Amino acid sequence: MKVAVIGTGNMGTILIEAFILSDSVLAKNMNIYNRTQPKAQAIKAKYPNIHLCSSEIEAAQNSELIFVCVKPGEMHTVLSKLAEHLYADQCVVSITSPISVAQLEEMLPCNTARLIPSITNKVFSGVSLLSFGENCSNKWREAIRQLASNISEAIEIDNNITRISSDIVSCGPAFFSYLAQAFINAAVEETKIDPNTATVLTEKMLIGLGDLLRSGQYTLPTLQEKVCVKGGITGEGIKVFEQELGDVFNRVFLATHEKFGDEITKLEKQFEHKY
Q1: Binding site listing
Q2: Does position 225 have pLDDT exceeding 90, yes or no?
Q3: Least crowded by CB within 10 Å, which of 9, 62, 230, 234?
Q4: How deeply is 240 buried, as exposed, middle or buried, from its count of CB atoms within 10 A (0-12, 13-18, 19+)?
């Protein structure tokens, strides 16, 4: 199967490398294009068998499965260019959350789907979120599920929970990295530990936490119960969280949803179909 990736920014590059390194797609079967060529050329230098295309149209015409990995504001322009060059049995997959599969279907004469990746897919971990157009064939649904499963836990979602699901699996690594760095900074400021040691200890702790959860021996609540002995030191720390965190995560999700709503409003001026 020939696969195109149009847009080789952060997430496009993650998909390219994850597909190749997981042996899901051979480099020689991948066509890539980016508006600014140096980014695509850097990938070509790393994987010489990849075909570097001169336009998004060339990439699409020479592929069966086409991933469009451009910014939301650029999506309508790219889809408009591609539409007249696509045929019914191809499949176009967007990775952009503010654009629904219904909006893809209204513009394109082929199968459509959405796959929202996470940076964790780079190491074949985490979740990728799937949604399919009403007219997407079973053949393409299964093919996309298999590709996603090769690099992640593939989970199909309804359109109405797209933003919160993306907040958790795609934005989540950045959110928790920020919290971890604040954790490290506080340790350095309040004690005699040096930044390097605090960073190493925190990173190893997080890896160990992930391994514990992966093992299935603990859930998040039961793990907290095991560590947090009544009247102990951990419990005192938890009390501070309970007092200080308040509704911070509620406000995080309200902020991301507000931004999401703004993006949808802008995009609906380009697309006839509302989100």
Answers
A1: 6-11
A2: no
A3: 230
A4: exposed
